[in-house]
Amino acid sequence: MTYSDVIILRLTQLCEERKITINKLATLSGITQSTVENIMSGKTKNPKLKTLHKLALGLGMTVSELLDFAEMNDTIFEDE
């Protein structure tokens, strides 16, 4: 699993839990829909911390909370 895959998994799970669409997440985060779509499609392989921070705020959490989940903590990432 790549870093990009793990971020996609996490954002998908959080959106499902909160019953929001990816487009709604973009609106809540103040990020363009194309930026979020690029992350979710894997086109953006390594989202900037600033972007992750905005996504976390849009989800009502900190960056630490956003990135603190099993797949992120248990995966050894190869260089992409």
- Please state the structural category: mainly alpha
Identify low-pLDDT runs.
none
Helix content: 55-70%
Could you spell the SSE succession in H and E letters? HHHHHH
Helical run tally: 6
Distance between the termini: 11 Å
Strand segment count:
0
Oligomer: single chain
Main β-sheet: number of strands, strand sense, barrel status?
A: none
- Average pLDDT reading: 93
Fold and architecture overview:
By secondary structure, the protein is mainly alpha-helical. Helix content is 66%, strand content 0%. The chain contains six helices and no strands. It has helices at residues 3-18, 22-29, 33-41, 49-58, 63-67, 70-74. Helix 2 (22-29) crosses helix 3. The termini are close together.
Can you lay out the helices and strands and say which pair or pack?
Elements: H1 3-18, H2 22-29, H3 33-41, H4 49-58, H5 63-67, H6 70-74
